Amino acid sequence: MGGTHFLPLITNTQVAARMFAVGDLVTAPKAKELGLLLDVYPKEDLMPKALELARKMAEGSPSSCRALIQTLRHKQDMANGGLSAALDWEAECQGRSYAQGDVLEGVASIREKRAPKF
């Protein structure tokens, strides 16, 4: 939950709308292009790169890092009515989908390996 709140903040509303409406798989290079990823590495380079990043982060002040993360989260929460409002709206929309049977049909189509019949 919260995807409809956060994805437009990361990309933009048009990209988010298309991703949600079409539901295409997003490759790692495409995700980087859209701003969802900062870097993409070959499998064999991933752990060394992650450890290098962790070392750099560990060199900084823990309290400054914590304050930065809290500030960024607060900024995101305040955008467009905040995360709480976005989660409430998503829950309402999901409830409507459940009531209309869309969720059951979606799950059944995956289980039966067929296109959904909405």
UniProtKB/TrEMBL annotation:
Pfam families: ECH_1. InterPro entries: ClpP/crotonase-like_dom_sf, Enoyl-CoA_hydra/iso. This is Uncharacterized protein. It comes from Sphaeroforma arctica JP610.
